[in-house]
Design brief:
Layout lengths: L7 E6 L3 H7 L4 H18 L5 E10 L7 H24 L2 E6 L7 H13 L6 E9 L1 H11 L6 H11 L10 E4 L18 E4 L9 H13 L25
Parallel strand pairs: 1-2, 1-5, 2-4, 3-4, 5-6
Helix pairs in contact: 1-2, 2-3, 3-4, 5-6
Bound molecules: farnesyl diphosphate (FPP).
Amino acid sequence: MKHQSHLLHAALIMDGNGRWATARGLARPAGHRAGVETVRRIVEAAPKLGIGTLTLYAFSSDNWKRPWTEVAALMDLLRRYLFTELPKLKREGVRLHIIGRRDRLPGAVRAAIARAEWETRGGETLTLRIAVDYSARDALCRAAGQLGADPTRPAFTDALAEAMHSPTAPDVDLLIRTGGEQRLSDFLLWECAYAELVFTSTLWPDLTAADLGDAVADFRRRDRRFGGLSGDGSTLSQPIIQTQST
Ligand code: FPP
């Protein structure tokens, strides 16, 4: 399947790993390990559901506040995922990009990112973006600093992508958060301006491909008006300025 502009951009806040582990009497990293299995399922299912871009929130800039053992476990899982999953990603036409700061990541993680991004650069089925050391507000600040004398939306969108060390991506169509909380947690604040939001109490390790399918079906039933009116094509028209006519 080739990349097409009508394919969806889905963004996922993968919440609930810690609670999943605690409920089983396990340490929190066990929940993150189970969460990687869900990542595999969701990446495999996404193209079949019409998703062309998938952005996963793996590690926020505020997650550095967690105990170092948990941070180290997450970094190690990311490094291993990039290493072990690479052949499959290439085979399935997945193009990988990491969004977020890279300068604070362990060297081994940075090397795994560089290799995976390079080796998957030809992928045309799915763009998989993984947010690591990511903060939307930091990215917005850096983009604003780079904008110069051209403060248009497209220029800002490009500046934002550059601030995240990633190519420009389409706006988010569908944002899903697992784990029962209903907040954005500093994720893709610019890109989600008109995103449809789906919140589910399912914990991330329990999320199935069918759940993702249900969220996409819910999204397709929604009436996206982008500030216009329903079903009259006005969403695609130019701004109408009321002039005082004779
Ligand atoms: C939030 O759940 C989840 C995270 C901070 C990490 C998500 C990471 C993974 C799913 C695995 C690594 C990712 C990849 C792409 C290989 P939480 O720990 O805050 O859960 P809680 O709210 O139940 O405590």
